[in-house]
């Protein structure tokens, strides 16, 4: 298999985003990565998401490590990071957002039913749980040309 090597691009300027702009950009895409601890090591999973009143909602399943971690933590929740970006592979222009906070299983039946209709799994697997991530810390950057 041959891999194309993109033409080199010049340096980019990184501009910090405020929380509102970072969350707006996060809501403009449906794909992200959730980062959590599994057996004392970081674990990263690509997932799709929706925003709900400033919280990040993802679907999960019974056997997922994140499902069991959030169930075991109950009230306190599990510390996670959530990252999403849109960076052009050719120009290297775009943005990246990281939201860090506590994840909890969604247990309210009506709320869970609503999220199950909003988020459609990518894999052929029963995904009958939802996790709510309340972002306490939100950071983001925009990559722009130097001029």
Task: Explain what the structure shows.
The protein has 147 residues and is of the alpha+beta class. 19% of the residues lie in helices and 46% in strands. The protein has helices spanning 19-27, 65-73, 109-118; strands spanning 13-16, 31-38, 41-52, 55-60, 78-87, 94-105, 129-144. It has a six-stranded antiparallel beta barrel with strand order 2-3-4-7-6-5. Strand 2 (31-38) and strand 3 form a beta hairpin. It is globular, with a radius of gyration of 17 Å.
Descriptive key words:
6-stranded antiparallel barrel, alpha+beta, 46% strand, 147 residues, 7 strands
Strand coverage percent: over 45%
What percent of the residues sit in helical stretches (DSSP H or I)? 10-25%
Which class do the helix and strand fractions yield?
Answer: alpha+beta
Count of individual helical segments? 3
The end-to-end distance, rounded to whole angstroms, is: 37 Å
Give the helices and strands, then pairings.
Layout: E1 13-16, H1 19-27, E2 31-38, E3 41-52, E4 55-60, H2 65-73, E5 78-87, E6 94-105, H3 109-118, E7 129-144
Can you summarize this structure?
With 147 residues, the chain is an alpha+beta fold.
């Amino acid at each position: 298999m041959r891999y194309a090597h993109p033409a080199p691009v010049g340096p980019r300027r990184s501009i910090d985003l405020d929380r509102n702009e970072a969350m707006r950009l996060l809501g403009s895409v449906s794909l992200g990565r959730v980062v959590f601890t599994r057996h004392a090591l970081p674990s990263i999973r690509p997932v799709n998401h929706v925003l709900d009143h400033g919280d990040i909602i993802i679907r999960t399943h019974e056997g997922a490590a994140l499902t069991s971690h959030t169930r075991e933590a109950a009230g306190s929740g599990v510390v996670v990071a959530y990252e999403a970006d849109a960076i052009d592979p050719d120009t290297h222009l775009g943005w990246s957002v990281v939201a860090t906070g506590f994840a909890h299983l969604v247990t309210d039946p009506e709320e869970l039913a609503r999220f199950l209709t909003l988020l459609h799994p990518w894999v052929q697997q029963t995904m009958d749980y939802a996790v709510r991530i309340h972002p306490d810390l939100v950071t983001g950057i925009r990559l722009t040309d130097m001029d």
